[in-house]
Design brief:
The protein has ten helices and six strands, in the order βαβαααβαβααααββα. α1 runs parallel beside α4. The protein folds into two domains: about 140 residues, Ribonuclease H-like superfamily/Ribonuclease H (Nucleotidyltransferase, domain 5, 2-Layer Sandwich); about 70 residues, no CATH class. It is mainly α. The strands form three sheets. A two-stranded parallel sheet has the order 1-4.
């Protein structure tokens, strides 16, 4: 069965594993007992061992929470038992190996895709954090998650440039979150992290920044190259003396 993964979800292995479990629950008869085999310990733990903790915190900060909310609600709505069993990946387990092969085959097909629904079953899911488990940091994070983040055009353009450069370098097309996280890597110096963050946000006072300040427009222009200054121009294109040292 070919399934259309909602485009707003991050295309990670954990998300796909969770979606596979959700699809199995949605297609099975709710009256029957259901045993699901998965080689993802992380996914199973999030639906069993860690479930109570996540619900107590209102799912704040939980990855792929939209998927796991739907799974949890639909498991509870079923009248039959739902058993999640961990199996070793690529070890010859019949159902698990067949699932891997089918996934590869379906990605090559051009047929119409079935939709998968993430709306939790009404009355069978928890949406709010318990005050007894809440901390100031947790509540603040919850506020940030619900607050729409403004998209700055310049920042979006810079992220896209970085994304496609990385695509050419290693074949992967990273998400915005992956790019931001990579800037915080411990192997990068504090000064370099600041440079990357400011450059991505267009926070340096160069180029177009000076166009709206009367009398200072010339500061945004590179007389050597006869073009508007930009971070890309300064670091990789400018022919001014000292460029090699930069």
């Amino acid at each position: 069965m070919a399934v259309e993964v909602p485009k707003h979800l991050k295309q990670t292995n954990n998300a796909r594993e969770a979606l596979a479990i959700l699809l199995a629950i949605q297609t099975a008869n709710p009256q029957d007992h259901l045993e699901i085999l998965s080689d993802s310990k992380i996914t199973i733990d999030r639906l069993t061992t860690h479930l109570r903790k996540r619900e107590d915190k209102g799912w704040i900060g939980a990855k792929n929470q939209e998927i796991f909310k739907a799974i949890t609600a639909q498991m509870r709505a079923r009248k039959g038992f739902t058993i999640l069993k961990k199996v070793k990946g690529h070890s010859g387990v019949e159902g698990n190996e067949q699932a891997d092969e089918l996934a590869k085959e379906e990605t090559q097909k051009k047929e119409s895709l079935n939709k998968i629904y993430l709306t939790p079953t009404e009355g069978f899911h928890h949406t709010r954090a318990k005050l007894s488990k809440a901390t100031q940091a947790l509540l603040y994070r919850g506020i940030l998650e619900r607050k729409p983040c403004p998209v700055r055009r310049g920042m979006a353009i810079n992220l896209d440039k970085a994304r496609w450069v990385l695509k050419e370098a290693n074949g992967d097309l990273p998400s915005d979150g992956c790019i931001w996280k990579s800037m915080k890597d411990s192997t990068i110096t504090k000064e370099s992290r600041a440079l990357l963050w400011k450059a991505t946000h267009n926070a340096y006072k160069i180029g177009n920044y000076w166009e709206k300040i009367p009398g200072y427009e010339h500061r945004g222009w590179c007389p050597k190259c006869n073009t508007t200054k930009s971070m890309e121009h300064i670091l990789t294109e400018c022919k001014a003396s000292g460029q090699r040292q930069i």
